[in-house]
Amino acid sequence: MSWHWEFLFDDPGGADPTYWQWLFSAWGWTLAVAGLAWCVALVVGVAIGLVRTWRGDDKGWAAGLATAWVELFRNIPLLVQVFLWYHVLPMLFPVFRHFSPFLLAVMAIGLFTSARIAEQVRSGMGALAKGQRAAATALGLSTGQSFRYVLLPQVGRIMWPALTSEAMSIVKNSSVAFAVSVSELTLFAMQAQEETSRGIEVYLLVTGLYAFTAFMVYALMTGIAAKAKWA
Amino acid sequence: MLLAAGFCAAGSVAQAQSTDTLAKVKAAGAITMGVRDSSGALSYTLGNGVYTGYHVELCNAIIANVEKAVGKKLEVKYQVVTSQNRLPLVQNGTVDIECGSTTNNATRQRDVAFLNTAYVEEVRTAVRADSGINSIAQLAGKNVATTTGTTSVQLLRKHERADGINFNEIFGKDHADSFLLLESGRADAFVMDGQILAGNIALSKNPANFKITGEVLSVEPIAIMVRKDDPAFKKIGDDTIAAMAKSGELAKLYDKWFMQAIPPKGQRLNLAASENTRQAWASPNDKPAEAYQKK
Known about the structure:
CATH architecture of the domain at 38-182 in chain A: Orthogonal Bundle
Largest interface: A-B, 28 and 37 residues
CATH superfamily of the domain at 38-182 in chain A: MetI-like
Shape of chain B: globular
Number of strands of chain B: 14
CATH class of the domain at 38-182 in chain A: Mainly Alpha
Helix content of chain A: over 70%
Order of helices and strands of chain B: HHEEEEHEHEHEEEHEHEHEHHEEHH
Helix content of chain B: 40-55%
Oligomer: heterodimer
């Protein structure tokens, strides 16, 4: 086969005047889905992780609920979760009908990832020497204070590499949003290859953008670690 | 750049491969047919590696003539293709004859060749029977479903811009998904190839709840795809189709797949041959979709 890149300057006939402009708008949607889902995942995941480890013995109704949350979201395939949010929830609760597919995809991917982040917080806490918590308490710190000043700074450091992988994963996981009609990179790839018959070229570009984005996330996360002198 | 150069080199090697399909299948004693998992009545699976449909049966007739030409019985291998990989697989020799639902258009003719058209598709609109929608103009402000990775998406987009109609497009990940959107009321219409719509309606819980309506949005010749620059092989295919069209066998084959009950569930598409399909039978040709649009 031979290469034909000139399709990038063709007119797809829609809102975007050329295919390359459409490609970049699709990239924007990928960044938006991944970025927002990451915010949801980080806030919810850290909260759930803290609830699970607050007492230090994994007992009590709050820790039980947090455990249920983690198991619910990490035991169902992501694509199935996306469909549950898109097809099933609006059937059960009509209020979800007014949510845009974009928002539903962000919730699905964000909460899926939150379960994974909660587990990383828990394993980070598990990796700390038991004496840390006891020493903090012996110094007269409340539970909140010992988390704030003693435990969390260490846990953050321990879980950072895992968190970096997770942040890169969410970029790639955002591709499931195509299934609920968010016009991100994967949807662009499937659609543009059909319209232009230049499948290999289209997939090369999209692969390149995913790889570039994930690498940028990696660079950002390791940059933060270097700045904080953790590495 | 180096990577790109490497790819280019690999590309030209693949291109240098022999395009003499007759010699290739004779030497191998086997021919590989590209088929689809679910392309309406044109090409679909019944499970367990069994593939069937209008185009598959047509290809079987062509392969029978290929066997005569090479003078030996050929083993027919099936290779499932998708809309993403069908062109490269035909080009690189994995698939010898693709019997799916590929639109014959000018862009693709740069890379592959198409046999005489035996089926001309019309893109239509399916709606719920009680919706009162009868034309595309009534879809303004409504939710319109179509399937990602199909030319209908582009068609809808162009229509929207040309006519200044504004509707909210929803993309199903496959035809079943798009139909579910229509069935569940999330979409008011489903725009797609007529036979796909007819097939989904026929298989739905209550076919009477849906109807195909409105103007024909686009006309596309769907054809069997073969390698480019292989006149001997293409001629056998073209001649087979032309002879079947002349003898009326093609019309009978059409009736079998698009009017009668078909497996697996005995559903009926009830999709009479369009004027364009009849014209293609009357004067067999491999003209691309662009030639149909000019009319």
